[in-house]
Amino acid sequence: MKRPLVFSPYLNITRPSEHDKRADFERLRDASGIDNLTPSINFLRRLPEELRKANFSISPVIGIFNERPLLISPSARSLCGLSVDIGTTNIVMRLFDMRDMKLLAEHQFRNPQIAFGEDILSRIHFSMMHGVEPLRKSLLEGLNSEIDSAARRASIDVEDIYGVVFSANTVMTHLLLGLEVKNIPVSPYIPVVSRALFFKASELGLQVSPDAVVYVFPNAGSYVGGDIISGILATGLHRSESPKVLVDVGTNAEIVIGTRDWILVGAGAAGPALEGGILSSGTVAKEGAIYRVEIKDSGAVSYETIGDAPPSGICGSGVIDLVAELFRAGFIDQRGKFTDRASVREIGGERAFVVTDEGDAPISINEREIENFLRSKAAMFTSLYVLTQSLGIGFNDIERFYIAGALGSGVKLKNAQLLGMLPALPEDRFQPVGNSSLKGAEMLLHNSSMIEEVEHIHSIITYQEMNTDNEFMKEFPSARFIPHTNPVKLG
Fold first, then answer.
1. What is the C-alpha end-to-end distance of the chain, expressed in Å?
2. Side by side, which strands form the sheet with 213-216?
3. How many angstroms separate the CA atoms of 45 and 41, rounded?
């Protein structure tokens, strides 16, 4: 039977009598038909009064907790759930009415831990000096503030939220839970925990219903977190008979190759290149962000912004367009260095190409930022190349490439291929899937049977550490050029 992570069945319960002296909870359990139903202590404390107030006809809130049904509340005005993707740079959450699965609100915001470092390693270093508590507290305060905002927009109370699903990379998951992270980035790369976890919201300090069920996706390695496992769930890659690939590039470059019988994952730090994080003019994909760039034969630049709003920065797809157009126009060479043809000017002590002067400050890109971008694309492509080679297959053997994360959000495939980010294969082999991490979290929120699928995915994953792989180290330098010093590898 398909059940959401939290649900609220209507129960018409037999009233007590001289001939029926069952206790209140046993009476409710029998009416529900769920043998292994377990009550929370808060539920038992409220049950007698609410049961009689409702004349023994109630709709209790039940959540799946450690794969067992848990009675959370005897009644609910609204029954809501949250899916949350915690990225290193950005966090996205969606609030649903769990009775009809209607989307009530969606919030995207910067991860407040950026105050302690733009990237994962900076935050780990901070935690080594000051502990994980400041990072955990910062994240929790940001989440609670946004949850409150989402609830107000949906005209509900935060205590109407009874289920939460978190999907995040390994380090973000640890910092959410306040777990030590210092052993993750150093050999042999050991996290505190890898399995899926259930908590009550009050244990984590989440300001929703105190007994709300919180599910946290498992991780499979230091750089392969719940966001990737959630993405695998979302794409259905784990049900495929022939090899398929999931490419997810955000702060990390993560490559998944697999079938229903096996899954190989390679990952390594890439830097937030495709989240706008490497550019001083970078921004997330929001209103006003430049997401399309074209350089005319005359050298003039045209661009499009999200919502046709005045430009406020340039997001991931815009960065890819910009670098591809600079190369196509001959304004940068294979190394990403400006040529004599480029019209550049000095900004902040560095030579930069200006996309537009409209706004408070020029929106531009300099050589250092282009170099960082090329390092990120090289990490992604090299991981893909090395994994396929290790399996003894070529790009043509891959049935489908699912493109997720920032790379799968409005990126022009031809530009990504021109830069050597993706193989030069027909367009119909590639399928953008957007935020697959958030989608997988939503699927599990809406269907608790997905918990078993996640366990299956976790059990067949083999993790290959790219940052210490000799073949990766050998191939990475040549992939830092446009498109590659050996373009044959792209086909």
1. 46
2. 102-110, 90-97, 80-86, 161-168, 213-216, 197-200
3. 6
Q: What's the rounded Cα separation, in Å, for the pair 68 and 125?
A: 39
Q: Residue 410 carries which DSSP code?
A: S
**HSE-up (13 A, CA, CB side) for residue 407:** 32
Instruction: Return the SS3 of 227.
Output: helix
> What is the tens place of the pLDDT at every residue in 15-34?
999 999 999 999 999 999 99
Position 379, amino acid: A
pTM score, whole prediction? 0.89
Beta pairing partners, 6: 63
Angle between helices 226-235 and 450-460 (to 10 degrees): 110
Q: Quick check: 12 pLDDT over 60?
A: yes
pLDDT > 70 in the chain, percent: 95
**H or E segment and range at residue 373:** helix 367-391
Number of CB atoms found within 10 A of residue 68's CB? 12
- Going by C-alpha positions, the residue among 276, 233, 278, 245 that lies closest to residue 85 is 233
CA distance 389 to 411: 26
Q: Residue 212: name the closest of 225, 201, 226, 197 by CA.
A: 201
Nearest-angstrom CA–CA distance, 87 and 357: 31
Q: In one letter, which amino acid is 415?
A: N
**CA–CA distance, 3 with 394 (Å, rounded to integer):** 41
Segment 132-181, tens digit of pLDDT: 999 999 999 999 999 999 999 999 999 999 999 999 999 999 999 999 99
User: Given this model, what pLDDT does residue 13 score?
Assistant: 95
Which pairing describes strands 90-97 and 102-110: parallel, antiparallel, or unpaired? antiparallel
- Alpha-carbon distance of 34 to 38, in angstroms, equals 9
Other CB atoms closer than 10 Å to residue 238's CB: what's the count? 22
CA-based max dimension of the chain: 97
Domains, the chain, ordered by start: 6-73 (3.10.20.880), 80-216 (3.30.420.480), 225-491 (no CATH)
CA 20 to chain centre: 52
- Whether 245 has a pLDDT exceeding 70, the answer reads yes
Q: Strand 244-249 relative to strand 461-465: parallel, antiparallel, unpaired?
A: unpaired
DSSP state of 456: H
Q: Is residue 91 scored above 70 in pLDDT?
A: yes
**Mapping DSSP to helix (H, G, I), strand (E, B) and coil, where does residue 135 land?**
helix
Closest CA to 331 of 287, 285, 366: 366
Which phi and psi (to 5°) does residue 470 adopt?
A: -65, -40
Q: Which of the four pLDDT bands, split at 50, 70 and 90, describes residue 271?
A: low
Contacts (Cβ under 8 Å, ≥6 apart) of 52: none
The per-residue pLDDT for 488 is: 52
Distance CA(110)–CA(451), nearest Å, equals 28
